[in-house]
């Protein structure tokens, strides 16, 4: 087994002759190199798919960062203003100014908010900040040491950033200057995970800060993930009376996620899209597991990476002009990748000319000539889909019970997964819309039209295929608007339908020969009236105009543009990632299965030749000790005899050299290896030492 390979992750240090830095260089920070090399080889980095992946992720990540920065801006401004005002107070007392920032329940990535606050305070040079995390403050001594060190280190960093060209300075002089300047600016102490601190440490720390806040301008910021009751329950009266508390509220995590989805991931400016199932899977992880926006973004990044790393053919997932430029760079293997796409077969089957079919399947140059139109159709389809989704969101998003969904992301998933017009939820929405009054219906559809036209002007018009999208959608919107005008002008007068005109009259009922014939005629008329009622035949001009408008919306927008993914144009797989199985396998871990695989077949993860097995049940001495012990324990029952286990372990690791019958003499090194492996197996939870028999272990898994 390789010396630097372990079953568990670890750090291996290789000394390269470097020595400890002297005291004079202790205050200097090493800045990273200008161009950090990638972990991937040059043969990967130079490929077109990798360049497009880097460009797409850079744009998306920057867009998300800007959006989050704007969402934090209001709260950050209030916090910064609170800190600055505390520094402007002339009279100081022993009451510690404290801000409680409600970050949201189960939001593990809220540390980014405090990072943004720290950067804002540093940029304005209005305060020095020290962030104390609970893992570094197990005791009061550790908390005070981290506090002092953080404030002094912050001062050193500010001085270094202000003047990097200064001469070398003695560390003691730097510390004295930092300590002397502590009283010039506000000293902000941030506790991002308030609930994780020990109550005694927290109380003593607050009392110490309040006792020194007359001489040192301390300001305390608490990150509260639950509610203000946690603060009141943790701090008794003699501590809470020493703080002046003000509460700040941040944006809720679901609201922040909806902004990221609507303005970034569903933005028409990006060619990459997620399938409905993948999109729903990532949002479910967020809503039902962790509430982590950062985790959602990383999951999306993984999907983006998997999509582009499938080959250079997927480098066509970009702007139309860039995709046209990359068509000439495609190799024969790239063209075969396109031909293997599931949507390519229906495209070939709809060609009537046999020569064209053969050319598409065999001639790369001929297919390259067809690719520009295929790419244009795909990009235009997604632009029309996104614009029509804006109309549908406004139309059905506020209906009672929201059958199709209330949010744009819910409608996006429903429209991509299935033909939405055939679903009972859509029919229920249409029925609810038909029950609206004239004023309500006209106002709702007018809002839908205005919103869609505004979306076309703001988001679509500036894109490369924006004019083509507007040219297709604008006439359809005008047709719907004219139909709405007909609804406005329609009266409430009753209009007889042809079926109603041919309905039997009362005179027919009088011409009967007997009671039995009269009864049969009445039953027949009742059935006809019921049939007409079930067909929902409009009886007024308004009802007919309303029904016509709904039919136009369904035929022009929903059926034509909000088609499911399996009905999308050919080669749409180049723009849509739908491999949900890979995402589920790599994002949601199965620890027990992974542990069993790692211990039963270490070669699966380590990829070293010494651990390669012909059969997973095979036992060889080159396996890690923990793997050998684990595979031997699988052969035992509920109770495992430690001595027999040790003998079997020795037989495997020594290669059967101890068959001389002397089982009592065991090499101390082998016994030590066995003891350590058993302890690791117990730590992993597979066994426990038996209390009934001291020389036995109890197996805990089956």
TrEMBL record:
It is found in: Nucleus. GO terms for cellular component: DNA replication preinitiation complex; nuclear origin of replication recognition complex; nuclear pre-replicative complex. Keywords: DNA replication, DNA-binding, Nucleus, Phosphoprotein. Residues 592-702 form the Origin recognition complex subunit 3 winged helix C-terminal domain. It comes from the Eukaryota. One of its GO terms (biological process) is DNA replication initiation. Residues 327-579 form the Origin recognition complex subunit 3 insertion domain. Component of ORC, a complex composed of at least 6 subunits: ORC1, ORC2, ORC3, ORC4, ORC5 and ORC6. ORC is regulated in a cell-cycle dependent manner. It is sequentially assembled at the exit from anaphase of mitosis and disassembled as cells enter S phase. Belongs to the ORC3 family. Component of the origin recognition complex (ORC) that binds origins of replication. DNA-binding is ATP-dependent. The specific DNA sequences that define origins of replication have not been identified yet. ORC is required to assemble the pre-replication complex necessary to initiate DNA replication. Binds histone H3 and H4 trimethylation marks H3K9me3, H3K27me3 and H4K20me3. This is Origin recognition complex subunit 3. It comes from Drosophila gunungcola (fruit fly).
């Amino acid at each position: 087994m390789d010396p630097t390979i372990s079953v568990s992750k670890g750090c291996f240090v290789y000394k390269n002759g470097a020595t400890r830095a002297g005291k004079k260089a202790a205050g200097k920070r090493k800045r990273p190199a200008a161009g950090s090399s990638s972990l991937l080889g040059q043969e990967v980095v130079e490929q077109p798919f990798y360049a497009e992946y880097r460009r797409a992720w850079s744009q998306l990540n920057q867009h998300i960062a800007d959006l989050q920065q704007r969402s934090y801006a209001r709260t950050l401004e209030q916090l910064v203003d609170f800190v600055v005002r505390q520094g402007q107070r002339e009279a100081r007392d022993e009451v510690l100014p404290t801000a409680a920032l409600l970050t949201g329940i189960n939001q593990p990535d809220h540390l980014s908010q405090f990072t943004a606050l720290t950067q804002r305070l540093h940029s304005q040079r209005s305060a020095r900040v020290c962030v104390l995390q609970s893992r570094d403050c197990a005791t009061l001594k550790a908390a005070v040491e981290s506090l002092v060190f953080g404030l002094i280190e912050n001062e050193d960093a500010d001085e270094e950033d202000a003047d990097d060209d200064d001469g070398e300075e003695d560390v003691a002089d730097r510390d004295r200057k930092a300590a002397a300047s502590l009283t010039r600016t506000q000293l902000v102490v941030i506790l991002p995970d308030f609930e994780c601190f020990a109550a005694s440490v927290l109380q003593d720390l607050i009392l110490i800060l309040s006792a020194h806040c007359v001489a040192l301008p301390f300001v305390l910021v608490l990150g509260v993930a639950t509610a203000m009751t946690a603060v009141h329950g943790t701090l008794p009266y003699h501590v809470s009376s020493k703080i002046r508390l003000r509460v700040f509220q941040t944006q809720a995590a679901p609201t922040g996620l909806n902004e990221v989805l609507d303005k970034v991931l569903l933005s028409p400016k990006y060619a990459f899209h997620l399938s409905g199932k993948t999109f729903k899977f990532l949002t479910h992880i967020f809503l039902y597991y962790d509430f982590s926006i950062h985790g959602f973004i990383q999951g999306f990044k993984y999907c983006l990476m998997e999509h582009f790393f499938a080959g250079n053919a997927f480098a066509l997932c970009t702007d139309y002009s860039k995709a046209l430029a990359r068509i000439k760079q495609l190799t024969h293997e790239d063209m075969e990748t396109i031909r293997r796409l599931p949507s390519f077969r229906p495209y070939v089957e709809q060609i009537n000319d046999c020569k064209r079919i053969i050319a598409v399947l065999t001639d790369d140059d001929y297919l390259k000539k067809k690719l520009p139109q295929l790419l244009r159709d795909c990009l235009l389809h997604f632009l029309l889909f996104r614009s029509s989704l804006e109309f549908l969101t406004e139309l059905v998003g506020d209906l009672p019970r929201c059958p199709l969904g209330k949010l744009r992301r819910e409608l996006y998933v429903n429209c991509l997964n299935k033909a939405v017009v055939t679903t009972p939820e859509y029919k229920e929405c249409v029925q609810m819309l038909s029950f609206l009054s004239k004023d309500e219906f006209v106002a709702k559809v007018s809002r839908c039209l205005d919103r869609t036209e505004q979306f076309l002007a703001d988001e679509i018009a500036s894109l490369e295929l924006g004019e083509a999208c507007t040219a297709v959608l604008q006439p359809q919107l005008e047709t719907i608007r004219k139909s709405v005008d007909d609804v406005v002008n329609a009266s409430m007068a009753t209009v007889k339908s042809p079926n109603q005109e041919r309905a039997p009259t009362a005179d027919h009922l009088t011409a009967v020969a007997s009671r039995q014939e009269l009864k049969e005629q009445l039953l027949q008329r009742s059935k006809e009236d019921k049939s007409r009622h079930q067909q929902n035949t409009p009886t007024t001009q308004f009802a007919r105009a309303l029904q016509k408008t709904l039919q136009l919306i369904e035929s022009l927008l929903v059926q034509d543009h909000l088609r499911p993914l399996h009905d999308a144009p050919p080669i749409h797989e180049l723009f849509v990632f739908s491999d949900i199985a890979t995402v589920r396998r790599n994002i949601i871990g199965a620890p027990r299965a992974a542990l069993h695989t790692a211990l039963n077949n270490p070669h699966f993860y380590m990829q070293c030749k010494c651990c390669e097995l012909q059969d997973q049940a095979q036992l060889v001495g080159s396996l890690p000790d923990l793997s050998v012990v684990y595979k031997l324990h699988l052969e035992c029952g509920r109770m495992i005899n430690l001595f027999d286990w040790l003998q079997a372990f020795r037989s495997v690791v020594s290669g059967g050299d101890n068959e001389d019958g002397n089982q009592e003499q065991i090499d101390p090194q082998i016994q030590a290896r066995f003891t350590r492996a058993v302890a690791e197996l117990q730590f992993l939870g597979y066994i426990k030492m038996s209390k009934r028999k001291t020389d036995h272990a109890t197996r805990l898994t089956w």
